[in-house]
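User:
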Amino acid sequence: MKWGAIGVNQRVGPVVFQNVGQGRRNGVNADRYINQVLRPYVVPFVQRHRNCLFQQDNARPHTARATHDFLRHNSVNLLPHPARSPDLNPIQHFWDIMQRRINALARRPRTAPELRAAVTQLWAQVPQQQINHLVLSMYRRCATVINAQGGATRY
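Assistant: Predicted structure:
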């Protein structure tokens, strides 16, 4: 499992942790998400950058009541996410960039530790200008989804 956040002139992560799938369909429950991602990474970041909006998709740990309560309690402003619109999140395009870079390696990772090392190394190599372009496309993404009345877009 992996997690990361991007912003204009910012990136947080990557956080790579083992997916042990303890009774949850997607392997990560809200408590684990809170304790391994939100508490150590998101809350300190938001405390340093008060004007930011945190965006997540509709993965179960993200939509859990415990997660929303935690974010509200810690004054994390959350960008509302339409029920069926993965089109909005630029991090998905960033993960696609990461996947292409991993696939292009002369020796692709074969074990979890090798993958963790590759993700960490490649994460740092993505030019910030490319990340900024993805993040600054949010205005266009939102307008496109609104114009499509929540329907599919080219994103």
